[in-house]
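User: Could you go from structure to sequence for me? I need the amino acid at each position, not a summary. Structure tokens:
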């Protein structure tokens, strides 16, 4: 693939992601997470995807959460309450670090599936 095609493909993928991101809805209330969770590390160290039952979220970090990439255990909590996801004050704890959440957006199942597919590549 030549560089021109590669740049065009990257630009189109970025535009599609930005268009989908614009449709996301920031959560306004806290959510108590259930036992049926799936976490997908996506977007490098800046984001992760979270599925909780039938609900799906894009969780963005303040700065980054580089320890997320190699974590074997991830815990989500807000103000000491485990499995609580809030628009402010939520922490994600990995084996090596604790990361502060900067944004939480509700996404649909298709966006979650697409992000999961991208992350598996």
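Assistant: Here is the amino acid at each position, in order:
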């Amino acid at each position: 693939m030549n560089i021109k095609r590669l740049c065009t493909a990257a630009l189109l993928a970025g535009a599609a992601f930005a268009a989908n991101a614009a449709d996301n809805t920031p959560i306004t209330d806290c959510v108590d997470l259930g036992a049926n969770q799936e976490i997908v590390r996506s977007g490098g160290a800046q984001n992760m995807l979270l599925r909780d039952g039938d609900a799906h979220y894009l969780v963005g970090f303040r700065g980054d959460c580089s320890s997320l990439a190699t974590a074997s255990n991830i815990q989500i909590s807000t103000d000491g309450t485990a499995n609580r996801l809030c628009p402010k004050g939520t922490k994600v704890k990995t084996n090596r670090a604790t990361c502060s959440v900067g944004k939480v957006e509700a996404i649909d199942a298709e966006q979650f599936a697409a992000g999961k597919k991208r992350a598996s590549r």
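One structural detail worth keeping in mind: Residues 74 and 94 are 5 Å apart (CA to CA).
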